[in-house]
Amino acid sequence: MALPLLEDHRDLAEAVAAFAARGGVIADTRANFKRYAAGDRPDSWDSLVNQGLHAVHLPEVYGGDGASLAELAVVVEQLGMALYPGSYVPTVVTGGILATGSGSAAATMLSELGAGATGAVSTGVGVEAVRTETGWSVTGTSDPALGLPGADVVLVQAQSSEGELWFRLTPAATAVVEVEDGIDLTRAIGTLTLTGHPVSDAEIVHGLLPQRVELIVNTVYAAEASGLAAWALRTAVDYVKTREQFGRPVGSFQAVQHKAAMMLVRSEIACAAAWDAARSEDHDVDQQQLVSAQAALAALPIGIENALECVTLLGGVGFTWEHDAHLYWRRALSIAAVVGSEERWAHTLGERSADAVRDFSFVDPDLLPELRADVRRVFADVELLPDDGTTAASWAPAKGSARRARFAEAKLVAPHYRAPYGLGAGPKEQAVIAHEFATRGWAQPSTVIGEWVLPTILEHGNAEQHDRFVDPTLRADIIWCQLFSEPGAGSDLAGLSTKARKVDGGWIISGQKVWNSGAHEADWGVCLARTDADAPKHRGLSYFLVDMTSKGVDVRPLKQSTGKSEFNEVFLDEVFIPDDCLVSEPGQGWKLAATTLSNERLSMGSTLHHGSSDQFRTVIADGSHDCSREDAVEGLGRSISRELALSAMNLRGVSARLADQEPGAEISVSKVYNALAQREGSRDLLRLLGPLAAVVDPKANYAIDHIGLPSILFGGGTVEIQLNVIAQRVLGLPRS
Q1: Is residue 467 part of a domain?
Q2: What's the CATH number where 257 sits?
Q3: ∠ CA 54-59-65 to the nearest 5 degrees?
Q4: Domain assignment of residue 586, given as a range
Q5: Which residue, of 417, 444, 526, 627, has the greatest Cβ tally within 10 A?
């Protein structure tokens, strides 16, 4: 829920939070609304300057620390959580922009900012510059600019026939700053009106690139929005944990838990968007433009949404003037407004994504050269093997595949498994292997349901089970299905009724399972059955391995609403299971089913099957949309935004593990958001099509694709169940 991943960033965040706590920021802010709205500095400004927080990102020659945009974002997020008043953020934005420029005007302004001056940036298409014999004449009124009233240093953007003109504003009768009545009570906002204002060549700031300016502005305000969203989440959760209604904590009610969990989901998205933008400072222009638009589109609205939800969870007390919630809400509204409309950024991201794809690779190409060489040798061997239908697009399990066998022999199907089944690859090794596959344009091999089965067998099974099942599964000689869900249990896995009774040499299982993906093709299934009817429901379960060819196993494909049969119901009628197919001990099934994700492979991307950006691109390319191209491109932008959010969250989890940290909430959050993103994307796609969505198209069945959503929304537990898990296990809200 916060930007820092590296240890030095966490230390920086703690120091900033401590500074804000010592300063009594909120109390000071409430006592000085009028002063700060007029542009006065906070009383703690000198202390902030003494600690160098205003100049973290400025070059050392100008009194700064020479840190990157990533460090600045950490500071901004923490001060956003504290609702630090005045022109801090406008000041650091001004400095960040100037640090990318050149010329004497930029150097002078940077020196002043480094010494503690406040700053602001004034922009707007209404300000125009015309060449004169002595320089420029500028006329027009700017857009409302935060921090402009009272700013010591003002950087102005004007439009000219020669392109953008950036210059230092010098006091003159031709320049008037008007203080506006801002929605944010803690920060000044104003407009600049210039009437034939003279600008000499010495006042021009050179070398400012639009994409760099945009990146700095959007990243900083996204970081502040992340801080605002995190404060709203923490405040709401703390309140509902202790506030009681009807004799129990408000936080125990499911509706409240779902609201709080969705606040966490949104907060993680905002944080990931700001983090991804901040780390892209040295990336190429296309990459910067993608993450910049994403930061504005994904993070800024979340500050508003979480602040509003905070008020709704606080109830009447949150709707009072005395509570701080409306101050955070006001700031979130203010910064989202000045950065620009959500629709504009969605359209911008859509246009930019037409020719560019976000590159989430982060591994040093020189890292672990010996491992890379080994992987490449395996790749060379695989390319020489005959085509057996196992393609690089998925390396999907295909029995008897020499290609798949070569990957298994090289321990590359599950490199994170311990020897002799894998390489015992840690996060760095996994990242390097994944990078090699991605560089070649190949998918990494998968055991599909085996991804969940094998770690359980390896952790809880015996040596004979290891030998019998692990290698054949990695070679794709064994295909698995999962026999957990039941018609009467739904998402309540512990409520299942399939029973197993002990007999000589094994067990007899009877019951019915449902929604079993791939059971009609599986060789083996993992089955939870009740072995002790008298034990509490979570303790009376056992974990069995079922030969799907056994007598009494009846697999019946289920025809879904899409017309396809991808799932099955499985009837178990007095099926004999030998003792050697019980994993661990009787009664340990719940523990085994809930095996931790510690063995799960790294996930460094995201795939949206429904409502993917590729589907939007196809609709735009073939002109099948029943709307303007602008609306279609906006839809693409929103789809891209959802995919970027998931990928950035996944990458944060990977980066945490590479830094020897345990992943945070992003794993649980991505599961929920992935399902919701596919739901939103699929529906958005249909909105573009109009009448064409009513016709079944064999090449692009968007409506049928939408009807297939339940497999995503139900799979692995419904979204609502997963929200319960987030609320209770991550946020610590009480069970009902």
Answers
A1: no
A2: 1.20.140.10
A3: 55
A4: 474-597
A5: 526
